[in-house]
Automatic annotation (TrEMBL), chain B:
UniProt keyword terms in alphabetical order: Cell membrane, Membrane, Transmembrane, Transmembrane helix
Record-annotated ABC3 transporter permease C-terminal domain positions: 292-408, 501-610
Domain of life: Bacteria
Lineage: Bacteria, Bacillati, Actinomycetota, Actinomycetes, Micromonosporales
Protein name (database record): ABC3 transporter permease C-terminal domain-containing protein
Annotated InterPro entries: ABC3_permease_C (IPR003838), Macrolide_Exporter_MacB (IPR050250)
Record organism: Rugosimonospora africana
Amino acid sequence: MSNAANTNPANANTDANAPHANAADTRVADMNAASMSVLRTRGLRKEYGRGDGLVRAVDGVDLDIGAGETVAVMGPSGCGKSTLLHLLGGLDRPSGGEVSLNGRRIDDIGERALARMRRTSVGFVFQSFHLMEELTAVENIELPALLARRSPRAARRRATALLEQVGLADRARFLPSALSGGQRQRIAIARALSNEPSVVLADEPTGNLDSAAALDVLRLFERLHESGQTLVIVTHDARIAATADRMISMRDGAFVDETRLSGGTGQLGVFIGLED
Amino acid sequence: MGGTMGHLLLVGRLAVRDLRRRRVEAALLLLAVLAATTTLTLGLVLRDAASNPYLHTRKVTNGPDVVASVSQPVALSGLEQLASAPGVVDHSGPYPAIPAKLQASGRTSDIQAVGRDAAHASVDQPELVEGSWVSDGGVVVEAAFAGALKVHTEDRVTVNGRAFRVVGIAVTAASAPYPGTSCVVRVGCANGAVPEDQAAALPLGVLRDPGLVWLTQADVRSLAPDPNSLSYVMNLKLADPDTAQAFADGHLSDGHPGDGHPGGTMPMRTWEDILRDATELAGDSQILLLIGAWLLGLLAVASLSVLVGGRIADQTRRVGLLKAVGGTPSLVAAVLLAEYVVVALVAAGAGLAIGSLTAPMLTGPTAGLIGSAGTPPVTASTAGLVTAVALGVAVVATLVPVVRAARSSTVKALLDAPRPPRRMGWLIAVSARLPVPLLLALRLAARRPRRVLLAVASIAITVSGVYVLLVLNAFLAGQPGTGGYQDAQVEVLRHVLGVWAVILLCLATVNAIVITWATVLDNRRSSALARALGATPREVSVALAAAQVLPALVGAIVGVFPVGFALFSGINAITGGDSDRATLPPPWQLVAVVVATVLVVAALTAVPARLGGRRPVAESLQVELA
């Protein structure tokens, strides 16, 4: 199966029988898609090793994610989901292909520009939370704003508001070690939102949580989705995937299937039986 | 018995394998302890370096226990009576002596010329190292003086304008080697440099740093302008050399009232006095080296603490495994401690070897004594002390992390959970107002306050050493003219200070790099996270370097005052030095030391910090996950 033909979700919704556009039309279409997409990749590859030991962690992925869209990426362990997420957020460099964020190529820019891009346009949520153990909840949340050179007062105001948003206003001065797993992940999500990013990239956000805690996090993602936040969630958890607008399946570094879920928001309640 | 042996074998095998697995760290550990043990060995070996050749010379020349002298023929009878005093078993002399001027190689020097018999004397027969003994028209020159003048046998010299041929070069135990030559002539001697303002106050004709030569008695008498200008010297051998001081004290008043000495006292020098003069330079060198050894020992503790802390953090899982398979906390502690004990023992052995082999470079320029000063023996007490210090350094530096590891929870250890960082709330609040690199730097530093303290201590110790070096260097540069050392002695002390400086700076360099690298490794996750959240590699690199530079700045300031000042005062107190004669470094020099320290630390930490700031973010975060 060729990735170019069958694993491009951007093309998955187009009419397979439509006549082939000429090159100029394709370029115009690409430009239009790029201008509408928050995130866009073309022929994205990430390889490790060489010769017989060559591993294609991400293998020619084309992807377009529109503003406000929630995309869930699923697949077995080691299929390249996390690597894809790192490439999308500029945490890792691709071996080939293109990545654009808000219409700007990020695969060929310097580390400094990448850092600025991450600071302003991307929020990360990690499976193991990655909170600074010596910082309180509110200090963890305000950190990205301080790195973005916002004033300490503005950073703290924003962090306090986000704490309220994630329902942990009363835990502001708690250290991560004094919080439950679910609470830690909600702090991590609040931190990801600190600089009002264009897209939040979440890597197995419920992977380390029990059912109740996972439900809290699911509700939070649901609310983010409703508020129009663009989300890309790598997950094993079908419940999370069910909240997405689109669900993409990966295997051996490539997209093998894409499902557009009807309705998008509100699926969580249906899925877990809270609603009819 | 078998169980104990089994335990010992297991502990030894695990310790050695872990050392081999981490060779670079093991080499750094060795280097840190080696620097301290080498310097300590040098200090201890120097204690014996001068006294051994003196004692050997005393034995070979049948050196006197007491040297008595009178400065006028009228007092000669009192001197001769000493030969039959109770406790005296042998003597030589009295020999006539005159002050004179010797010209050699275009240089004129003050000398004391002693008239000796051509025949062999039973007490103090100077041992020839070149040529033959005195004969009419022939002069024998004391070996250290000959070395300073660069004269050899067969050279032509003049004494008070009369030509003599150098027939021999010899050593004696009746006087300290040049330039510490004992004074036996009436006009008196001024040994060592005399400050210009005091030089004018010296009595007319006083000899300045006189050398010692031997002529025949006839030549000495013929050189004397009149018989009354002769002084006399007699060498006495006592039944019990240990009573020399008591003998001298008991016969102090045997002098003649007309001899020119106050109250008719008779000047006497015991063999212990001469030994002290002969070993004075080595004594000063030894004090400097011992203080250097303690400084280096402290630096070694700092190095080891950081290295051990890092190693044991990396060994958490291994500790968990050992405990999971039945290892008791004491076994775990023994395995961890054994590695450092092995390193300490190797460092002690190597330090003893290097120290004793390099000591000759610091024992002085003199050939004024027989017996090779270059091969002083390493005594059992020296070996024991050096080994004990090496083991002490290792145990002090490792005990806390080893005990902490041994008492850790097995489950947590198996999970390889990193030790939680410290939180300093006020510092976190203050840092929020600073630029990003400083914000990150302060927070990095605050995570491990003990490491910051070690870094401050390490720099403070180094800078205090540099402070003392500056003071001593300025002091030595002012010689002669302000103090008591000759050029040759200044050269030796400069060598000692040079050795000090090189070892101190090398160890401080190793410390700075090791501490930075430990910080980089310890902060892999937080650095990667800061970058994931938007910090640039440059900001993280600058933060990692600044986390070292800020403690370096504090350490440098503290190292100048009060630590440097206190160290210098301590050295003065121990050596009985006169701090008024030393010039403290001017403020600009102290500021330059602080600035240079900060710049050097910044340069040393730049590479590890840059590497740390550019580690792949995703990889670092994934490693933590794994």
